[in-house]
Amino acid sequence: MKKILLMLSFLLVGHACFADVQNNVAENSTNLFVVIGAALAVSICWGRTGSILVSALAGLFGWFYVIYYAIFLRPNEDEE
After folding, report:
1. 18 with 37: CB under 8 angstroms?
2. Checking phi first, is residue 51 left (phi over 0); if not, alpha (psi -120 to 50) or beta?
3. Domain boundaries, position 35
4. Vertex 40 angle, CA 29 and 73, to 5°
């Protein structure tokens, strides 16, 4: 539940920060894509580490961390 609330709050705050007054659809869609990647990275990292600093760093990397997690880290968790 905490992961969902963290992700939703990050999405709302991030989208509000990147909102454009001119209603440029292409630019707003790109910004939303970046914010979703950052929110997903933060929630994945928070679930794995529980560290705010590491989660913030993962949020900066955004989609790169999500792809890294999907390729390299996900299969190793099933073995534990």
Report:
1. no
2. beta
3. 2-79
4. 135
